[in-house]
Amino acid sequence: MKSSVSARLNADLLDEKYEQWCDDPRSVEENWSAFFEGFELGNAQSKKKGASASSGAASVPAESPAVDEHSLNFRGKCVSLVYNYRTLGHTQAQINPLQDSAPRNPRLELSQFGISEADLGREASTQFFRGGQKMKLGEMIEGLEECYSSKIGFEFMHIHNTEVRNWIRTRIENRFSDNSQANFDAAKALKWILESELFESFLGKKFLGEKRFSLEGGEGLMVLLNAILEKCPSSDVKEIEIGMAHRGRLNVLRNFLQKSLTTILYEFTPDYVPAIVAGDGDVKYHLGYEKVRELEDGEVRLSLAANPSHLEAVNAVTEGKARARQRIIGDDGVETDRKQVLPILIHGDAAFAGQGSVAEVLNLSQLPGYRTGGTVHLIVNNQIGFTTMPEDARSSAYATDVAKMIEAPILHVNGEDPKELVWAALFALEFRQKFGRDVVIDMYCYRRQGHNETDQAAFTAPHIYGKIAKKKTLGQAYKAELVETGTLSQDVADGIQSSIWDKLEEGYQTMREMEKQGDRSVFSGSTAEPQPPYSHAPVDTGLPLEQIKHIGETLTSVPEGFNLHPTLAKRFVPRRRDALEAGKGIDWAFAESLAFGGLLMEGNAVRLSGQDCRRGTFSQRHAVFYDNKTRERYFPLRNLSDDQAKFCVYNSLLSEFAVLGFDYGYSLGYPTMLTLWEAQFGDFSNGAQVIIDQFIASAESKWQTPSSLVMLLPHGYEGMGPEHSSARLERFLQLCAEDNIQVGNFTTPANYFHALRRQKKRDFRKPLIVMTPKSLLSRAEAVSDIDDFVAGTCFQEILPDDKEFENPEKVDRIVFCSGKVYYDLVQHRAENGIEDTAILRVEQLYPYHEEMVKALSSQFPNAAKYVWCQEEPKNMGAWSFINPLLMETFDTRIRYAGRKAASSPATGSKAMHKKEQKSLLDQAFNV
């Protein structure tokens, strides 16, 4: 570009640059920005202005207006200064309450822009800042400092969407001139802070040495939460779903969800016993709670998810619960667009930066099957993780940098400025409601105590904790400030404090009195869901024949003019039609669809999600048909009847942790829906082990939160190597106790059909873990007759031998197995003419149905040898779990047939696999 901007320019280039500038002034060079600004102002003055920047491209004359080049250069420098403050102002914002002043960023020094002190008196008005308001350069810098480098640091220039970015910029730059803070209620903010502060102080005095993972030093969190809550009714928010770790949880339970004070206090007493019907309970700072808060403008339902100590693991669960609630209250339509249920996730700074699950959950935020309309993330930035300082905990500048991956705006806020905290909270809620996107508030604060109340933080951070020890508490400092400025009188301020303390004392005395009297009504507000005991009683899960045929016909039909893929049209659909007509040959995927269809027509919604599950990893399901020419989608299971329930099937992101957590949360929030998560291969569930261990297997015992989630895990030894053979059945069986989960390895499509339907047909809820097959999906013998699906049929936990024995008394060996190996055993027996061995299938490994095992075995009265056969190595699979159970059933030694113990699930050699498979089959009949 030539130095003289007044020279005649190529008209096409000029139009191109102007269009670019209209969309985003930052996207063109500084001199171009200054030129176009001068052009706009010049046209406005001469009343010959063309289309404005907001209306898109306009015709720009090839010759520029006569503007002094020196002035344009200065204006260009001013524009550059504005952009740099918007981009870098947060780096010198006064956000850290442990610093007296923030270090200046040298990149924002005047010399960096070719500006001198002498220029401060020059007029520097630009439409890029406060709408072109006339001001001197010095005034502009003061305004920029006030907006971008005060008690809130803003990061938003990474957002590509111009509308979003400009909306944020306008809110930031007008926040001191648009009366947006005029209604700030200092007395209310003081009350929120003192409630939090005095609650912690009270617990510390009454229960000396007890762990409570206090919020001390981070009381500003209660300002953020309460400011959001008060604005919810006028913002169309009816419910809030909250997920958080343990720090500050008791404070949130008491002062935000308003859990009974007497209950919380009683949980600290030495003789406290959980008021639960079954299970083991959990520590008080892991428990969930629900409450409807009555506010001046309406009511808001609050729900805090129970969580383990695995910090960010609860995030996905909370998102799933939120989406389920949106579905239940009708918040997923076009008109509401998920504005009525608000997810709030409360994080620690070290965990937000360090836990990979955070990125996985952020990645859910805009995906069709997982979107919740935006989440407000509140980070309690203690500036330390346990004992680890930020420089040892992350490679990024901020703990929040991972949120930039979804272009979330980030507000770094000083946690000891209540007015700014309220503004940030209201900004976050307004942004979420307008754009349906995530927003992050990074509240800088500190931990007044160590990791817990018995930890000495000064061991590892003496300098920081020396500062903290000298600081007044936020409540006392803010109280003194309000009195000194005349905002509150001393009597009013003292009255707020004494009123809060008196309530705490009153609650404590009430608790002590109830404790003396043995009165346990203190727990009357429990949100636990006790379950009826598990039962092996059969449940009729069959369907009327006419309904099966109707569902089958719908599954094998497409709209007129729909171009189904030739392979599906010639093979997949005709195979299903033939099976329906013949009344036999119903395969695994067809049985699954029939189960879904029956539930949908009975009013039970179905949700299936996972990697590639619409088609199915093995191209078996085809829950969605795609037009071969247009890729238009058709969902047969959404076209069963006019009044059917909703069917949802989603291909997930490439994640196990977040997606399984989300679907588990969904199952909690929408208990009448059949919710299923499918792993692409069973071993992929390894990536979600925290969700399995801390939630699915133990949540009912810890928190009395039942779930009927179904996990589908492809499993079976097909010579595919160590990574895609085993779904690690042994890990699930190791978690089994107290009838907590159901674990199955089915052999027939009909039994799979009944197991799925059984999830919605009993009066108790239990997660179901299914070792789903691979080769059995298409194996000719692994099919069921239509008679196995009709009314009067049910799930069978143990299946008898299909072979008809002429002389059952001659059978001296019973081989027990589960899953795909059954068909290999049957084939081996037939090929070798073996007549003295029966094969029984344990379809449901847990809960173990001992009576049925005995009943089926009694058909062979002379059997003296009992064998367990499996494909997995001896230290894996079901052997270690089932062996003691069978030994107790038969009071004799159980023989083992299978692969030897190994460190890897399977060999990578096809030839070695075949050799091992032949060996274990031989063992089953000879060991």
From TrEMBL:
Mind telling me which InterPro entries this protein's record contains? 2-oxogl_dehyd_N (IPR032106), 2oxoglutarate_DH_E1 (IPR011603), DH_E1 (IPR001017), KGD_C_sf (IPR042179), ODO-1/KGD_C (IPR031717), THDP-binding (IPR029061), Transketolase-like_Pyr-bd (IPR005475)
Q: Which UniProt keywords apply?
A: Oxidoreductase, Thiamine pyrophosphate
Name the CDD domains on file. Answer: TPP_E1_OGDC_like (cd02016)
- Locate the Transketolase-like pyrimidine-binding domain: which residues? 586-779
- Identify which cofactors the protein needs according to its UniProt entry: thiamine diphosphate
The Enzyme Commission number assigned here is: 1.2.4.2
Q: Where is this region: Disordered?
A: 515-541, 904-927
SMART domains registered for this protein in UniProt: Transket_pyr
Any one Gene Ontology molecular-function term assigned to this protein's record = oxoglutarate dehydrogenase (succinyl-transferring) activity
SUPFAM superfamilies reported for this sequence: Thiamin diphosphate-binding fold (THDP-binding) (SSF52518)
Determine if Oxidoreductase is one of this entry's keywords: yes
By sequence similarity, the record places it as follows: Belongs to the alpha-ketoglutarate dehydrogenase family.
Describe the function of this protein.
E1 component of the 2-oxoglutarate dehydrogenase (OGDH) complex which catalyzes the decarboxylation of 2-oxoglutarate, the first step in the conversion of 2-oxoglutarate to succinyl-CoA and CO(2).
PANTHER family for the chain? 2-OXOADIPATE DEHYDROGENASE COMPLEX COMPONENT E1, 2-OXOGLUTARATE DEHYDROGENASE
Q: What is this protein called?
A: oxoglutarate dehydrogenase (succinyl-transferring)
